[in-house]
Amino acid sequence: MKKQILILGSGFAGMWAAISAARLAHMNDRDDIVITVLAPQPELRVRPRFYENHVASLVSPLMPLFTATGVNFIAGSVERIDTNEKIVWYKDAQGGTVFASYDRLVLATGSNAKRAPVPGVEKHTFDIDQLESAQVFEKHLSSLVNQAPTPARNTVVVCGGGFTGIELATELPARLRELFGPGIQTKVVVVERGAVIGGRYSEALRGVIEQASEALDIEWRLNAEITAIDENGVTLKDGSHIASSTVVWTAGVQANALTEQFVAERDNQGRLYVDENLQIRGVPGVYATGDVANAASDDVGNTALMTCQHAIQLGKFAGNNVAASVLDLPPIPYRQVNYVTCLDLGSWGAVYTEGWDQKVQSVREEAKKIKIAITNELIYPPKAEREIAFSAADPLAKFV
Where is the signal peptide (predicted)? Predict the structure, then answer.
């Protein structure tokens, strides 16, 4: 009787989990193991690039890769997971509710932006968290040329000074110049609750972000708390108001809500705690990977972050280990000791660091080349040829 491995999600973690599981099954000549990906669409949406323009192009089709590696695909949106019956209920492409059975399950459904309970935040802010919302934002930006040239029209407020907020803010001056022309004065304002620019980062990395922000004339409002957002802009706790027709929310991220369907411990971002093999603690036969997994990445206390850098490797290990559990083979404990940061800083360049202490290795044009190599090549799916894909899906192969 065939064994069913069901993977929920086709993002970085889900895609690599599927290819990695198919690799191990192929290596052991097991055609009785069926690997299926269940997701809304068979495509990888290159989310780390959604701060860029032309976001519709940042999608990579996955069916050729799945066909080449023997992975099945079901188009659908998961609604309910029954771990007792080993059934996943989902809404199919026609809108009907159907189910898929499994012997092993991998949850790889990613994360979503988390908006704070601020009056007006839902109605009057944009985000670049998902492809659809990034397209809405891009369309809005393009429409600004049809509005009267007021300070509000020419000002973009970015709420949150984390990784996404910094990359978007530093990209915007060039996008606004292209939109309005070089003679129009524009402003980009980052509203940040922290006391310093880039407070989550090393002192060396913060210094580079500050340098780029100054060169790009980006205004930072530090120690700032947003109390309301409306069609006229943003009101801060100190009573000041920033007039803007464009407010983008980038503060906060939460694991996909499907993590709530498991009777298991979750962290403050909703991620499920997993063991070293990426099985959800206390839930036999179910694995979590990517942004839904709280996983130790090394033996000194570091935890995988909600980034594609970690999701790619988490997916490879999860896929290998879920297949290993079916094949009665020893799993490979997840470890990802190396960690790098490569932050795009718009027309100023970029900054590249290595290690958890974020030692700056290169900046400006040199770092920009590294950033482009990572986001335009390295994180994309492998070529749709079985041997090439299986080689890349080896969890012990070097990634970064």
Answer: none
What's the token pair of residue 230?
Answer: 């409306």
Q: Which residues pair with 43 in a beta bridge?
A: 61
Q: Domain boundary at 232, 249, 266, which?
A: 249
Rounded distance, CA 242 to CA 217, Å? 16
Whole-angstrom Cα distance, residue 316 to residue 13? 7
pLDDT of amino acid 183: 86
Does pTM surpass 0.70?
yes
Q: Select from 288, 303, 338 the last residue of a domain.
A: 338
Which tens digit of pLDDT belongs to each residue from 298-325? Answer: 999 999 999 999 999 999 999 999 999 9
Residues spanned by the domain of 242: 121-249
Low-confidence residues in the chain, pLDDT < 50:
none
Q: Who's near 365: CB < 8 A, 6+ residues apart? A: 349
Q: How far apart are the C-alpha atoms of 139 and 82, rounded to whole Å? A: 40
> Do residue 25 and residue 8 come from a single domain?
yes
* pLDDT for the residue 399: 59
Q: Give the neighbor-by-neighbor strand order of the sheet with 241-243.
A: 226-230, 233-236, 241-243
159 and 249 in contact (C-beta within 8 Å)? Answer: yes
pLDDT at 93: 87
What order of strands is seen across the sheet that includes strand 359-363? 340-344, 350-354, 359-363
Report the alpha-carbon distance of residue 251 to residue 247 in Å, rounded: 12
Summarize pLDDT for 16-56 with one digit per residue, the tens.
999 999 999 999 999 999 999 999 999 999 999 999 999 99
Closest CA to 381 of 56, 31, 123, 13: 13
Q: Are both 218 and 260 inside the same structural domain?
A: no
